Amino acid sequence: MVADNQSPAKETAEAFQQQLGQIGVKVNLREVPHATMIGKFCGTPKQKVAICPNLGWGKDFFDAQSMVDPIFNGKNIVQSGNVNTAQANDPKFNAQMDKAEELTDPTQRAQAWGQIDKNVTGQAYYVVWLWDNEVNYTSTNVKGVQNSFNGQAWDLTFSSLK
Questions:
Q1: Model's pTM, two decimal places?
Q2: Could you give the C-alpha distances from 44 to 7, 15, 48, 78, 115, in angstroms and in order?
Q3: Per-residue confidence of the chain (162 residues) as pLDDT tens digits?
């Protein structure tokens, strides 16, 4: 397991290692600078790192392809800068994604990518260990604007006081 050596990622990795140990999974933890973790280990398939607990992924635009395709399509496995860290490469799923990429009708596209998401996440290529829990407060004199491209988090550049 290779992890970031800076807080809070360092503590996240150590907690994950401890929790794995509690269920009988023993891993060696190597903590390195973030750039090294991404550039030398977690983004480089030949390093054969089993677990990278400090990675995350978010959609780039409001379309399921930007969430599913980069991390589950075998054509995205590259020797350096790899984001398909599980090295998911199922020809059946790859073909489904290739076909869904060409759809332009929003309803058909959403249905196709929704089914692909269900198919690939059912294979447990990744284990989601932690979800962010963000609480947004408001009041009568605050106009909070949510950003649909950032998980509905508040976009402070457009939020204001009334």
A1: 0.71
A2: 23, 24, 8, 8, 29
A3: 999 999 999 999 999 999 999 999 999 999 999 999 999 999 999 999 999 999 888 777 778 898 899 999 999 999 998 999 889 999 999 999 999 999 999 999 999 999 999 999 888 888 766 666 666 667 788 887 877 666 667 777 777 887
Write out the DSSP string of 72-140.
Answer: H-GGG--SSS-S-TT----HHHHHHHHHHHT--SHHHHHHHHHHHHHHHHTTTSS-------------T
Contact 88, 120 (CB under 8 A): yes
Q: Which of these, 45, 37, 41, 39, lies nearest to 89 by C-alpha position?
A: 45
C-alpha pair distances (Å), 58 with each of 53, 69, 93, 108: 15, 12, 20, 22
